[in-house]
Each structure stands twice: as structure tokens, then as C-alpha cells.
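Researcher: Here's a chain I'd like modeled. Treat it as a single chain, no partners, no ligands.
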Amino acid sequence: MAIRQPGQWPPVTALWQPADYVDDLKRGTVEYSPQWRNYAYHAVTVPVGTIIQGANFAQAGPLTEVFTLDRPGTITVVDCNLCNVKPSTRVLVQNGMTVQSWIVLVGGVQDRQFLTGRGENLVGTVLKPPLNVVLPTGVVISPLPIPSL
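Model: Modeled as a single isolated chain. C-alpha cells:
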């Protein structure tokens, strides 16, 4: 597998990947490009002052650091999927989805367990997935193997 070069799109293929690629749930760091919309499971380097619209930044586990800015300042994300993205005062969110959740198995079926409260209220809280919780119906909820935070 070759190391991905800056500006090479798509960011991960069978032939190349970012240098910090770990697995399908931690796909490495890429630079933001307005031509690309799906950054799920990636960390992203973004120029200060950028306005991003309609992109997917979803992550596998709660409070994942996603955005690295190239210098002091802010970026704006509008109508983006920020599921499990750690809130930051440097990222201004307009109309985005900001829920925090774990991917779990419920009775053998993959599902998401959404955490209570809004993302910004969870910052600083140590979050772990549920461990083999048995519901009154007898269904077992157990965490999927997700890279640690």
C-alpha cells in the first residue's frame, strides 16, 4: 500500500491511504477539498475561514477530534453530519447534526446507542460503551469493537 500524497483524491483507495491510517474506523488525516463531501472516519486539516456545506464528518465513537485548523481562527460548518465529532469553539456549527453515540449490537443487530445531552455538554466526560446490558425483554446490548478514544 502506497502512502497518499496531499491533494490525491479520493483519500483512501486499494492503492493508497494516509500515512496515519489505522483501519476502516480511523482512516487517517486528509486536507479539506470542496470537491469532496464524505470525510467519515477521517481527521481533516482545514484552512481558517473556510465555510463547509453539506459534508459528512461522522466518527465511530463519541467526542472524536476531527478538525485541525492551519492557524488560529475559526471555520464554519453548515448542514453537516457531525455525529461523534468533539465540539470546538473553533468550529462554528449551523444546522448540523451533532449527536454523540456508540455503535452497539442489540440482539445481534448493529444499532446506535445515543448518549443523553448535547455534545458540548459531554466534553470532559469519560465515555465508554455499555457492557453487555440485558434489557427486560432478554435482548443483550453489547459494544462492537471500536478503536479506543
